[in-house]
Amino acid sequence: MGQQTTHLTKPQLFLSTLQVIVLLAGVLLSGGVAFPFGGQVVTVLDGGTIEVVRSGKAQRVRLNGIACPRSGQPYSEQAKQATSDLGFSMDVTLQIYGKDKQGRVVAEVLLPDDRNMSQLLVQQGWCWWDRKQAPDDTQLEALEKEARESQRGLWADPDPVPPWEWRKNARATTP
């Protein structure tokens, strides 16, 4: 017996193609897929934001899963310096997850030795684990707990104010 071939009608082909597109879009939008690329850190804007140059183009990057003290907030300069000490002028790999409200790329930033900058900053005590952005990141959760218990960085302060509270308080006092 010969091999039978099945031909899809145009509506069936359209539906099959549409299903594949919807499936891929769902995976991409879920944050389940990261897109890696490399570049060099050329600027540290604050503890949680850097600029990376790739192929001559600068890209503003927010470190995934962390919330650092805001400009003018206690420990903001120390967080910025810690980020600079870790990554300035380094060739890094970005695992991109998307963009934030300000249009910055949100990414895990891996140093040349594959250490994760967000994890290191949390471990050193210079930022908070961002529960909204990375609710399931048990590694960041554990590192924050360890930094708190060891009173490292901003955790030496008995009651550090997280940036989301600082921002809320700043809005409330602005005329």
Which helices and strands, and how do they pair?
Layout: H1 10-29, E1 35-46, E2 49-54, E3 57-63, E4 66-67, H2 76-87, E5 91-99, E6 105-110, H3 117-124, E7 128-129, H4 138-150, H5 163-173
Parallel strand pairs: 3-6
Antiparallel strand pairs: 1-2, 1-5, 2-3, 4-7, 5-6
EC number: 3.1.-.-
Pfam families: SNase
Region (Disordered): 145-175
> Could you tell me the strand content as a percent range?
25-35%
Please give the CATH class.
Mainly Beta
How far apart the termini lie comes to: 85 Å
Would you report the number of β strands?
A: 7
Total domain count: 1
The residue-averaged pLDDT reads 86
**Any low-confidence stretches, pLDDT <50, length ≥5?**
22-32
Structural class: alpha+beta
CATH architectural arrangement: Beta Barrel
List SSEs in N-to-C order: HEEEEHEEHEHH
Instruction: Note the total helix count.
Output: 5
Shape: globular
Brief digest:
Residues 145-175 are annotated as: Disordered. The chain is an alpha+beta fold.
Give a verbal description of the structure.
- By secondary structure, the protein is α+β, with helices and mostly antiparallel strands.
- It has one domain: OB fold (Dihydrolipoamide Acetyltransferase, E2P).
- The chain is built from 5 helices and 7 strands.
- It has helices spanning 10-29, 76-87, 117-124, 138-150, 163-173, and strands at residues 35-46, 49-54, 57-63, 66-67, 91-99, 105-110, 128-129.
- A 5-stranded mixed beta barrel has the order 1-2-3-6-5.
- Helix 2 packs across helix 3.
- It is globular and about 60 Å long.
- The chain starts with 9 loop residues before the first helix and ends with a helix.
- Residues 22-32 have low confidence and may be disordered.
- Residues 35-157 form the TNase-like domain.
- Keywords: Endonuclease, Hydrolase, Membrane, Nuclease, Transmembrane, Transmembrane helix.
- It holds the Pfam family SNase.
- Its EC number is 3.1.-.-.
- The chain crosses the membrane at residues 12-35.
